[in-house]
Amino acid sequence: MSVIMPHPVDHTVLGERPPKHSPASLARGLFAGINAVINSLRLFFFFAVFLTDVVGMFIVHAVLSLGLKWVSPRGYRRVQCFFESLFARIMLSLVHFIAGGNIYLHLPAIDDPAHGSTLAKFQGIFENLHAPPAFPATEDDILISNHQIYSDWVYLWSLMDVIGRAGDVKIIMKRSLRAVPVFGWAMRFFNFVFLRRKWEHDRAHFHKRLRTFGDSDFSFCLIIFPEGTTLTKASLAKSHAFAQKSEARETQHVLLPRVLGVWEAIKGLQMAERVDGIYDITVGYSGLAADDEPERVFTLPNLFYRGMAPKETHFHLTYIPIKEIPTENIEDFSQWLRDRFYRKDEMLKVFYERNGTATFNDVNIEAPFPNTSRSMKRPLCPFWYFPMALAIFCVSCYSFYLYYRLLVNIVRGIFIAFT
Predict the structure, then answer these.
(1) Less CB within 10 Å around the terminal CB: N or C of the chain?
(2) Is 169 helix (H, G, I), strand (E, B) or coil?
(3) Is residue 386 within 8 Å of 53, Cβ to Cβ?
(4) Distance, CA of 161 to CA of 225 (rounded, Å)
(5) For residues 407 and 403, what is the distance between their CA atoms, to the nearest angstrom?
(6) Per-residue pLDDT tens for 217-230?
């Protein structure tokens, strides 16, 4: 049975004019086209400059550290710290250029038991915008933080740069991130810790890495996300199921933390006498409502392609001396860590009810976080980082051109010699 298809209507035969688009729809189409071009240029600019800088930086590092790792491990570590700090500053400068944003630091309330110890660590920065690093270069630090979006580590690296420790960062991350082009390679190069999140497979490797940190003469900042993954509806549902199973309290803005790995890390470094305390950091982003899924709003494509990123990143800082943390047995430590995350959940509830846009001053009449005594604003990175990144880009491009000319001349010379 054949099917008769209708012929398209010819408006010229019928004497009718073809339908016209309204000026509003044409304007929307034009705007969408211009926006797509701008986004494409933004993405191209970021990766062109970033990849060129990183490749050039790794080549220089390879030349400088050739054989240095075995001849002088201390010298090799100094070179590695310098290039890790340089990598962080290049990345921060480009993120700040394409998306902008500021970071805000908040200290605990005066009646908080941790106020005095935290103020002692950060007082220099709060009293002087151009103060020297708050963390002495000889200190070893463990930082625990909530984990809302994949780019959390970018903003935490900005915090480390503010306190002068951008070259000492070590982050515990999922093993799958090792394969991410450029970023994953850089993380492996800077000796980040990658885990499969299956303790029977991770334990031996994790303790080996801890011994490496413990035996090193250099300081480090070990950043741990105890939740193990970002906050999504799926991960929150799993957290609620675990809470019901373990008779724990359900949370809405954080996940219940994974205890064993954090306990092993803190206890191992404590026994090695490498840490004196823990920095408990609660991160909140402006532009999110209480029921938003952060990772769906501030995705990596939105950051690098559309320039959509938090305009304000808020860090509530708390320093807890190691003697106040019950590390003797895992049961007490588990309850302590859960209490810290219950506290984060309550703070973030207030923060997102205000949609992360509350105004505040030195006395914090209406601070974005509750339990806050003092706050200050800093740019995501200093203004001179971006010219530095462009200068490295120009030098790298010129160097690649010279390498290309040299290779062409060598090939040409060989061809002439054998013909």
Answers:
(1) N
(2) strand
(3) no
(4) 19
(5) 6
(6) 677 888 889 998 88
